[in-house]
Amino acid sequence: MSRVCRRVLGEEKGSVMVMVVICLVVLIGFTGLVIDGGSAYLTRSKLQNAADAGALAGVTVSSGNSKNEARKYTKANEVEHGVNETTVTVEYIAAAATETTEKAYTEDELGQMKPQLEKELNEMTDQEVIAAADEYEVDISSYTNGSGESRTFKTVTTKTREQIKEEIREELNDKDEWSDLDLIKEAEKYNIKTNSWTNGSGDNRKFKKDGNGKGSCITAILNTPAYQTKIDNRLAASSTNYRALVIEEIVANQIEDLRTEQIVITPGNLDRLKVTCTRTVQNSFMSVLGFKNSTVSAFAVAENSSWAGDALPFINLDGYPSTEGEDLEAWNKVGPGDKERISNDDLIVSPHRIQVKYSDGITFKKGKVMSKIKDPLQNIVVVGKTVYLFSIKNSEVDNYKKKADKELKNKDVIPLSDIVLLECIVTEEWNGTGSDVISLEFVKEYDWDDAAKIFISAAGDKPGGGPRLVE
User: Fold this and answer.
1) CA atoms within 13 Å, Cβ hemisphere of 271
2) Beta carbons within 8 Å of 51's beta carbon, 6+ residues apart
3) Contact (Cβ atoms closer than 8 angstroms) between residue 67 and residue 292
């Protein structure tokens, strides 16, 4: 190797510059990690606070409002608004926990209800049927006489009693249907003596050919109490029964009303709510190295142990005890066809939970209540379990009785000012028949505080426990 080559290769001028550049890049990298990483860490910390607040807020309210409530509190606690907004997702942690709104009753269930609804109406007085017609908007003006509470059903007879009697006489005189012996035995069944009208003995008896023995026998049969009742029944059947027509129309309207009723079904567990906050953070120093921005995310999971509208799907209408430990029954019969029922439209149902959307008051609904709440109700009504029951205030009970100022009609909304929430303990398991009342033990009463928008006891207690973060 020549002396020139050795001199060039051994030359160290400029190496410091290379080292400075390398060190500068490393220094910028560490500075970027400190500044941009610190910014990302701070952003994540703020996002975590926002997620925590949103999850805790969302899980404390009814699931119908929980997602909106969670987003509201998340946004109120997030990092400052800027070019890059925070993305917020809210979800229940449960298998197949997608909420669906379904019809409360299937067509088969509605078909099965019809005979029972007809039976209950037929057991009512005329005045009760007329009142039910008004409630279900059946025009009865052409079916009734009188006005107001004095209205009565019209009955239009198409045949006279004598005409009905002659029809039955002709039937008894029909030789193909009634032989002489048949008529003789029919008469004797009602203790009518036939000796003067017949010849022969035993099963060989026949009516005498001279005289009008057969006609006299038929007349005697027609005059018996049993045949007088038969004449009356046929006369009634031949008449236009406006009561029956009205009942038919009421049932049709009841079925249509139930057909439109809907219920919210949530297949999963509603006790845990997850809120995730995601935000894009723009890098400062790290952008020099080609890292323009980074994504920061935080999530929180809150578990609900507080009261969030969980209640039996009934509204107690006949008072409640004032002393802890006394018995109380839910789901009592109010009247023919009516029970202490909350509309399915106000319910959110999952396998082990029923929530009532009560914020706008409680909607009273006449008619059936079972359908999709039967299985959840059996899972809830377990001996020793704490349940909640909405009730009319004791001071308002008389105002909601029949013919009182606030008598409940179908779909009436009971204001929260007239309602209390009762904490109870189940004393007997419900057997799922749909006919038995639910036996409870009264524990505590919570009154509605309109200013705070919560139910609260006289001692300041709130129903249930409190929410907590689990993740």
Assistant:
1) 13
2) 74, 275, 276, 277, 298, 299, 300
3) no
Structure tokens at 40: 């990302």
Is the pLDDT score of 18 beyond 80? no
- Could you tell me if 355 and 62 are in contact, meaning their C-beta atoms sit under 8 angstroms apart? yes
Distance (Å) of CA 391 to CA 307, 320, 395, 460, 464? 16, 8, 11, 19, 17
Q: Kindly write down the DSSP assignment for every residue of 102-167, as one continuous string.
A: EESS-HHHHHHHHHHHHHHHHTS-HHHHHHHHHHTT---TTTEESSGGG-EE-EEESS-HHHHHHH
Measuring CA to CA, which residue among 357, 384, 355, 388 is closest to residue 457? 388
- Is 70 exceeded by the pLDDT of residue 22? no
Q: What are 335-369's pLDDT values in tens digits? A: 555 678 888 888 888 877 888 888 889 999 876 66
Token pair for 415: 């204001």
pTM of the model: 0.56
Measured distance CA(464)–CA(467) in Å, rounded: 10
What is d(CA 333, CA 322) in angstroms, rounded to the nearest whole number?
Answer: 22
Torsion angles phi and psi, residue 160, rounded to 5: -85, 165
- Other CB atoms closer than 10 Å to residue 450's CB: what's the count? 10
| CB 28 within 8 Å of CB 285 | yes
Residues in the chain: 471
Instruction: Please name which of 22, 35, 31, 106 lies closest in space to residue 281, comparing C-alpha atoms.
Output: 35
Would you state the pLDDT for residue 223?
Answer: 93
Identify the three-state secondary structure at position 303.
Answer: strand
How far, in whole angstroms, is CA 359 from its chain's centroid?
15
Residues 140 and 244: beta-carbon distance below 8 Å: no
Name the 3-class secondary structure at 171. Answer: helix
- pLDDT, tens digit, for every residue of 177-213? 899 999 989 999 999 998 889 888 888 999 988 888 8
Whole-angstrom distance, CA of residue 335 vs CA of residue 406? 16
pLDDT level of residue 82 (50, 70, 90 thresholds): very low
Cα separation, 298 vs 151, in Å, equals: 69
| Three-state secondary structure call for residue 440 | strand
Q: pLDDT tens, 365-416?
A: 876 666 677 888 888 888 888 889 999 999 998 998 888 888 888 889 999 9
Q: Residue 95: which pLDDT band, with cuts at 50, 70 and 90? A: very low
DSSP structural state of residue 470: -
Rounded CA gap, 98 and 431, in Å?
29
Q: How far apart are CA 360 and CA 411, in angstroms?
A: 13
